[in-house]
Amino acid sequence: MTTKIIFVSGGVISGIGKGVATSSIALLLKSRGYSLTAIKADPYLNVDAGTLNPIEHGEVFILDDGMECDQDLGNYERYLNQNLNSTNYMTTGQVFKSIIERERALEFEGKTVEFFQDPPREIIERIEKCAKKNRAEIVVFEIGGTVGEYQNLLYLEANRLLKLTRPKDILHIHLTYLPIPSSIGEMKSKPAQMSIQQLAQAGIQADFVLARSQVAVDAKRKEKIAIACGLSAEDIISAPDVENIYQVPLNFENQNLSGKILEKLSLKPKSSDLSRWKVMVNDALTAKKTARIAMVGKYFSTGDFTLSDAYLSVIESIRHAAPHFNFKPRISWIDSTQIETEGVKVLAGFDGIIVPGGFGSRAVEGILTAIKFAREGKVPYFGLCYGMQLAAVEFARNTLDLEDANTTEINPKTKHPIIDVMADQKEKIEGKNLGGTMRLGAWDFKAKKGTIIEKAYKSTTGSERHRHRYEFNNAYRDKFEKEGMVIAATTKDGHLAEALVAKSLRRAEFQCILNFSMDLVRYVKSFSQGQITIPKEFRKAMGLKDNFWLKLSVDQGRIIVEPTEKETVPSSYLQKILTIKGNWLNLDEIKKNRTDIEKRVNKTRN
184: helix, coil or strand? Predict the structure, then answer.
């Protein structure tokens, strides 16, 4: 079938959840059996997000192939539960760079390169390339920025051109905002009307409007927007604030958004299956216990306000994991400069401390103080990337008595470079070749047997994403392990330390520090794992114990079936029970054989 493209734009103000809306739309269509991918377009001249200030732009998300991109790609991966790649992200800088390189190579054959003609064509080519690489039937394309800004006009023009040539394949969804001024106490629709009209001035008629507000949009406001903007009231979808962002797809589906989209795109209205998603959301909302987590970093403050966008994936990782253990996380943002001025009293009362990634020397002493507080106070500590490196420095200073211990990123002349720049990075730093040159993307690792890393991954091997230039100095390995800090994981060749773990694993003394950014893992394990019991008659025929279980986990659209005990089930038995091929159960096969499978297998949840 011809690839369908859904453009998503935002209006009135930024930060109202365009990325979550895009992710939710993609999830809903995927739940109806279509192959999906999503693209984020940032209207910046930067080639990627790697050199952007996280306070201004938010988290830099890393893909397996090393692409440094916008945090919305993290949302796409978490909602779609699939791995994305560099074709899923574009910036205006990439678009212009490609056009200029092609012009220098004479690919335009002497023709004039036009500002408002060639960039939209380049954008369309990139969309088609992404669809092909990801084998997507539907592409959801998020246009960064706010309608009315000049920066995103090229993307809107690409949308307009595609609509002209392929009207049945292109659809536009506009997310807009309806404020409720406290002094008035009434929802106002005029800003939303104006943003939709600005979209029309760019030559685009919205097919659907997602109406964001504090509460559900009432029929009167829907009617106002419909009349002013030439839409049906049924095509205006209410998008109120929710307690948990993973409720957003369910809210959209309650208004039949995916069904309406499929109808407008002339696609078959396949049945939707959001059962696992509903279970996950329910678990998150009904968790009974609470855990107070201190997130210590230095990218929180923006003027007089505190933002969490710089560490979005860390926060979402906590939110994913907590319901699995019946916890609701209470996360507090602690700016490390506050620790430097007020001391460790700001860390009192927390159940755990996390230090995520970062760069540079600013506010580092506050982070080191927090790490020392955690170690000496036996508060569970989890360090990621920079949080790992600084924990190693703190351990060297206060346990190994190496007073001058440091990372060469902060003090290039330190006598004890516990963390040092990789050899191949020194030339890049000296030559100021800094963009896109760090250790980036997914790297395989091997875990030491018997460590918490092996236990967590249920394997001695794994893969995690990286974004850093500096590494643990192997000259200090023996000293660290002698004093109880174990090198729990390394790269496959054993050369680079990937994880350090305190030797004592008693709960009150647990300390785990990782050089990789496991917060950037794309899959939501709690969304995609479950267990099935084999009915008694099958267990008896197979000679299995009564308590024998199989575990199901999803990996890129495939369900992996594996036993949870040492005993293994021959694939021939699995074929008889689940109608599968080998040890893999294809999602399409599940849908075809759902009734038969449900009759023979009693499904339960972890």
Answer: coil
Q: List, as own/partner pairs, every contact residues 600-606 make where C-beta atoms lie below 8 angstroms and the sequence separation is at least 24, other chains included.
A: 600/535, 600/538, 601/532, 601/533, 601/534, 601/535, 601/577, 602/532, 602/533, 602/535, 603/530, 603/532, 604/530, 604/531, 604/532, 604/533, 605/279, 605/530, 605/531, 606/324, 606/529, 606/530, 606/531
* CATH 3.40.50.880 residue spans of the chain: 290-520
| β strands within 2-88, DSSP E | 4-10, 36-42, 60-62, 68-70
Phi then psi for residue 318, to 5 deg, are -65, -45
Report d(CA 35, CA 23) in Å as an integer: 14
The CA distance from 8 to 506, in Å, is 49
d(CA 232, CA 220): 13
Question: Which residue's structure tokens are 């070749």?
Answer: 433
- Identify the pLDDT of residue 438: 77
* Sequence-distant (≥ 6) Cβ neighbours of residue 160 within 8 angstroms: 202, 203, 204
* pLDDT tens, position by position, 487-537: 999 999 998 999 998 875 443 344 565 665 544 444 333 333 333 434 444
Longest CA pairwise span in the chain (Å)? 76
pLDDT digits (tens, 9 = 90+) for 533-581: 344 444 454 444 554 444 444 443 344 444 444 333 333 334 344 433 3
State how far the Cα of 295 lies from the Cα of 42, in Å rounded to an integer.
28
d(CA 480, CA 483): 5
Distance, in Å, from the CA atom of 372 to the CA atom of 133, rounded to the nearest integer, reads 47
Can you name the CATH fold of 4-279?
Rossmann fold (3.40.50)
Instruction: Please state, in angstroms and rounded to a whole number, the distance separating the CA atoms of residues 493 and 508.
Output: 33
Burial class (CB in 10 A: 0-12, 13-18, 19+), 423: exposed
Burial 547-581 (b: 16+ CB within 10 A, else e): ebbbebebeeeebebeeeeeeebeeeebeebbbbe
DSSP alpha helices (H): ranges in 205-298? 219-229, 248-254, 257-264, 275-286
Angle value at C-alpha 292, between 454 and 309, nearest 5 degrees: 85
- Residues pairing with 143 in the sheet: 41
382-389: average pLDDT:
90
pLDDT level of residue 311 (50, 70, 90 thresholds): confident
Helix, strand, coil percentages in the chain from 3-state DSSP, rounded to 5: 40, 25, 35
Burial-class residue 263 by CB neighbours within 10 Å (0-12, 13-18, 19+): exposed
**Are residues 202 and 251 in contact, defined by beta-carbon separation less than 8 angstroms?**
no
Q: Among 1.20.1340.10, 3.40.640.10, 3.40.50.1370, 3.40.50.880, name the CATH number for the domain at 290-520.
A: 3.40.50.880
Contact 54, 310 (CB under 8 A): yes
pTM exceeding 0.85: no
Nearest 5°: phi and psi at 137?
-80, -30
Angle between helices 190-201 and 219-229 (to 10 degrees): 30
Query: Per-residue pLDDT tens for 44-78?
Result: 999 999 888 887 788 889 999 999 999 999 999 99
Residue written as token pair 């690792």: 445
**How much is the pLDDT for 431?**
62
- List the 602-604 sheet strands across, edge first: 584-586, 558-563, 549-555, 529-533, 602-604
Phi, psi of 489 (to 5 degrees): -155, 145
Residue 237 tokens, joined: 């979808």
